[in-house]
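Two proteins were folded this term; both appear here.
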Amino acid sequence: MVIETLLIIGLLFNLHKRKQAEVEIAASRLRYQIVADYTYDWEYWSAPDGTLNYVSPSCERTTGYSPREFIEIPSLLREIVVPEDLEAWDEHDKSACKALKPDAIQFRIRTQSGETRWIDHACQPVNDAQGKFLGIRASNRDITERKSANELLRKSQEDYRSLRTDS
């Protein structure tokens, strides 16, 4: 009877430890989900086969398309890249999957409403603790305003140089 009592106490102790671990895992998942879902940039994680494991809600603010649309149509990102930037995007995408090292590119997309937006894209491979490749993690930042400001600055500098050479 003493042995049975000790076994029951041991089982109850293990059950308590397991419940604590489950609570900690749930809290950790919530922290991760908050960080991932409330980031300002459009984030995603693609599996080795190119399907998307995760797309942040910010993609809708940037593109007009929902995370669900990107997950259901894995080719959507490529489809919204403007034709003039498609070759550079394809080269980057192929290189990132082969080289498995951090990389970056700037390109333009066409939003769902037809607006052209500049994207600063940075990606890197994701590996588990044993080094197994799990896919690509990417961050996309809308830099349209910065690109517009740089273009205005460039034109102003050209106008200034033109005025100086005319006088």
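Next, the second protein.
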Amino acid sequence: MSEAIDVLIPAIEKDLGTLPYVIDAVRQNAAHPVGHIFIVAPQSRRIKRLCRAKNCVFVDETRVLPIAKDDIRYRTRRWDRSGWMLQQLIKLSGDRICTTSHFLVMDADTVLIRPHRFLKEGRTGFYCRKWSQPEYFRMYRRLMGARPRRPASFVAHYMLFSKSVLSRLKRRIEELHRTRWYKAILRCIDRSHPFAFSEYETYGNFLYALHPERVLIKKARNKSLSGGMRHLTPERIRRLARTWRSLSFHKRKHYSRAAGKKA
């Protein structure tokens, strides 16, 4: 029998259009017994109501880290990425939230439409793409003191984390920078760059550097769509699933200051 996994989904109210589908799809398409699904979010009656309806665990995002969005201050006159950065730090805190030895992080705008097996014979399956932001790799070198091996890009909207490997990653960051891991990340980012850090790229490259034999690279086959999941008929989803593994419905493309204040 496959190993049971918890699921962690950081979310905000803007994600409520896709979040119910994300939850249902991970239960249907994760080829593992799914334990708890943790929804980490700001205080929101609507999100709490959804958690009750979907049998998920609501986690107040202010209780995950000793810093909040307003403490991050990752913005320029044109954009505000503080909330985006906070969500990445929340994902890297999943070892404190989840109860299983491995946990799946899902972006709240991405829906699995085909079965996914994340663990097979001691190897972790990563759903990868060919392109990434060059700044992610420059940041990795500043943070980790080494070049990323990067056989592919690990940025694919969802990832399985090992709690023990994640804890080891954070300990390594703290040893190198002599401060808490989240403070080190915030010190190292280039605040003039709107794509300064990737939690997926960092964890994936760290595991690959430690144990390349434990990494199984798969094609992401992620399709970005406009509109919403509710507009897709079951037949359209079946047709899409012949080619794609997941669908993403991105609504925050430009990260303007106005958009950032709502995040």
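The longest strand covers residues 34-41. Residues 253-263 have pLDDT under 50 and may be disordered. These notes refer to the second protein only.
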